[in-house]
Amino acid sequence: MSMSSKRKRERSKNKAKPVPTLASLEQINLNAAGLDIGAAEIWVCVPEGRDETAVQAFQTFTVDLYALADWLEACGVETVAMESTGIYWIPVYEILEDRGFEVFLVNAHHVKNVSGRKTDILDC
């Protein structure tokens, strides 16, 4: 078997599987939000219909973290899931926990193999 035919066969095995759409995912917690935390900004997604814009970005300054918590409260969010990337999650976690949110840290490695192009919006 030639190298080129072997590579073609390997590529056909590794084709990306379609990413499920939000409509096909069953919602377990209707009052949950997702956060993608970075060094300079935090992307937040709340359930559709809770605000005109379901996905927003917040800066990482303290005043912005409090604004994030205010927005989540206004949207009726009770539970938050976020990636535990580096140390950037710590102040967000503390502020949200103090506000009474149920906060879950998610291991980013568990979702790193999800097919499709990785973006902050898709992560949150």
Tags for this model:
124 residues, alpha/beta, Nucleotidyltransferase, domain 5, 5-stranded mixed beta sheet, globular
Per-chain topology:
Blueprint: H1 3-13, E1 32-37, E2 41-45, E3 55-59, H2 62-74, E4 79-83, H3 89-98, E5 102-106, H4 120-123
Parallel strand pairs: 1-4, 4-5
Antiparallel strand pairs: 1-2, 2-3
Describe this entry's structure for a reader.
It is built from four helices and five strands; from the N terminus they run αβββαβαβα. The chain is of the alpha/beta class and 124 residues long. The chain has a single domain (29-123), classed as Nucleotidyltransferase, domain 5. The protein has a five-stranded mixed β-sheet. Helix 2 packs across helix 3 (89-98). The termini are far apart. Residues 11-17 have low confidence and may be disordered.
Number of beta strands: 5
CATH superfamily: YqgF/RNase H-like domain
Radius of gyration: 18 Å
Uncertain residue segments = 11-17
CATH architecture: 2-Layer Sandwich
CATH class: Alpha Beta
Helix content: 25-40%
The H/E string reads HEEEHEHEH
The fold-level CATH name is Nucleotidyltransferase, domain 5
Residue share in β-strands: 15-25%
User: What is the count of distinct domains?
Assistant: 1
Oligomer: single chain
* Envelope shape: globular
What's a quick, concise take on this entry?
With about 120 residues, this protein is of the alpha/beta class.
